[in-house]
Amino acid sequence: MINRSNVAAAPHELPISTPEGQFIARYSKLGLCSLAFPSRTKRRPSDAISARPPAQIRRWHATASKALRLALAGRPPKALPPLDLSAGTDFQQRVWRALRRIAWGRTWSYGEVAQAIGNPRAVRAVGGACGANPIPVFVPCHRVLAAGNTLGGYSGGLNWKRALLQREGIRYAA
DNA sequence: TAAGTGCGTCGTT
DNA sequence: AACGACGCACTTA
Fold first, then answer.
1. What beta strand segments (E) does chain A contain?
2. Whole-prediction pTM value?
3. Residues A25-40: pLDDT tens digits?
4. CB < 7 Å to strand B — which of 99-158 in chain A?
């Protein structure tokens, strides 16, 4: 079941410049609702960034920008903006909430995530929900490894997963 | 050991 | 009805 009632039709879209490239953050009235990895493709003019976001969104964006730059530098962020995960199905939201309990520098397996949400056999479905995570890095789906500490997949590309794990000092099976 | 196959399982499209 | 960011058993090389 999808709940779009809290998702603004046209969320504010703001860039975050990092040494790794320009991420795009999107904000609803509830908080950060999406974070996109740097894209090689040029943004179209129709995707223009809104001129002057409200003060609250500017504060959220400042927090998010700082947090992202810390994370990419290998330091755990001290504060995050509110995360708006309301666009997901009930199942996805349960998975995403569970992912937020994985500590910096630690990993869970897909099976452990499935257990954490009380649905121990929905292992494969958990993988699907991880792939649908709209806020990578802050909702740390990169900390979910396959059984035997193998890498598993990553919708943002395995290079990003490897990079994020490395910044947290996480080791996994070759 | 490493790589490949088959199947259970379940949320999403 | 088909498809996965899975996991496990089992077979082959």
1. 12-18, 21-28, 31-36, 108-109, 144-145
2. 0.92
3. 999 999 999 999 999 7
4. 119, 121-125, 128-129, 132
